[in-house]
Write a structure and sequence with these properties.
The structure is a homodimer. Chain A has 9 helices and 8 strands. Chain A is of the alpha+beta class. In chain A, helix 5 packs across helix 6. The structure holds a DNA duplex.
Chain lengths: ~240, ~240
DNA sequence: ACATAAAATTAGGCGCGTCTAAAAATTTTT
DNA sequence: AAAAATTTTTAGACGCGCCTAATTTTATGT
């Protein structure tokens, strides 16, 4: 019992004091803007991502510096500290786990889950993310194909690609969709394709980019290039 | 498609514009304070329930009057309007559904769920409560034995009582616990008693109030009066 | 290198929800 | 019915997170 508690102190979920909702959103945005390049993030970029004003951003950046969640020097851009990065990853972990929950358990569709997860990601409880993770069977990817950070704050690389990029003869698993229109989602349902569905790419037609696939080792089906461009998969 | 949307307008979950978190808490508190008596609720009582200041309460009451969520005349106390009552019931519905989720699906214990549900009850989405309700199998009572308001805003009466009040020969179902100490919860686990467990009261011992019960039609077990006083049941 | 454009920062302000202190109204006590 | 106690209300203020407008700093173009 004591040992368990001890271990918990070192998992992401319980080691940080609660941030305000707004602070959490800043950390998340700085993380997302910074992950591509190692460049420092400008107030303007943050303001745009949050749909607010650069002047407001500067105010908040000062506060985040005080809390040691970011590094920031005047006119040099912001960067997460290790502490800030861990919190950002926790928010992202919570967001993506809730998205899986909403899609798989509550039967929401791909295009509805993001907005609700934006709210749910801020629920504070030291055990919640890990319990939800377990309940969902430790999913590795969210319904948009993005990797879910682990309890210890590690995030898998994104191997996701689109079906049309898969080589002939290879097999992949569906991790999400790009297009979330109901016509596409309904078509997927008809083909019995969902998250995790195994697809083998049998042949590509040079003429129009159509691809011939086998769904769950079943009979061959042909889908258009438009279809294949919008299905996110993971090899 | 259109018909479905139309119907939804008339269910509790989607018919109200979002309130602020604080407004929702005021409505909830006014509901809870008002349900016992039909008396009007004083600012002082509300302030105490919210652990804040009567002066703050008066400010908020004015705002709630403007929004037509309560009736309030100077120094006469507050009362929910029909609109306010419906919103309060929706918040309570969400709270209790999330409590069921946390206990049954995420393996939280009786004493941990309230605080998390206080946060989850404010998540805004027109479909969420109803989807969660369905996912949970339309539970009628939360883990504390309190009835869950329906999607249309009706709440069952509270029939709950304690095991020691059940008459000899009657059968009841567990709806919750009064004591949430881990020693009691562990004892319950050992006896294989959980939410919904069927218990028949076979005999009461006059000497010390011990009761002899059958759990799930199984063999007879004797439990103390202290035990029977702390188990909430529903006949 | 200098003028111009763009970005960052400061200054001052605002709405929300809270507070304290003081005044007004109501209720209770005698 | 008057005095005392309590409750309610007003007045004024504050922190948070945001805003606009003006200023300063940095980057860009010729």
């Amino acid at each position: 019992m004591y040992l368990l508690r001890f271990v918990y102190i070192y998992t992401m979920s319980s080691s940080f004091p609660a941030q305000t909702l707004s602070e959490e959103n800043y950390l998340k945005v700085i993380y997302h803007l910074g992950k591509e390049a190692t460049v420092k993030i400008s107030p303007t970029a943050i303001a745009e991502a949050l749909s607010n004003n650069p002047a407001s951003v500067v105010d908040m950046l000062k506060k985040l510096v005080d809390k040691k969640l970011i590094q920031y020097e005047k006119s040099k851009g912001a960067r997460l500290t290790e502490k800030g990065r861990k919190i950002a990853l926790l928010i992202i972990r919570r967001h993506r786990l809730w998205e899986v929950f909403l899609l798989e358990k509550l039967e929401y569709s791909w295009d509805e889950i993001h907005e609700i997860a934006e709210q749910l990601e801020h629920i504070q409880d030291p055990l919640l993310a890990d319990r939800l993770d377990k309940f969902l069977g430790f999913p590795q990817y969210d319904p948009h194909g993005d990797p879910i950070p682990t309890a210890s704050g590690e995030m898998a690389d994104i191997y996701k690609t689109i079906l049309s990029e898969v080589k002939e003869g290879n097999t992949c698993h569906v991790v999400g969709v790009k297009d979330t229109s109901s016509s596409f989602l309904q078509y997927l349902k008809k083909l019995d394709i969902g998250i995790g569905t195994k697809i083998s790419l049998d042949e590509k037609i040079p003429f129009d980019g159509s691809v011939i696939i086998s769904i769950k080792n079943g009979p061959k089906t042909t889908v258009s290039k438009i279809f294949a461009d919008n299905l996110l998969v993971h090899e």
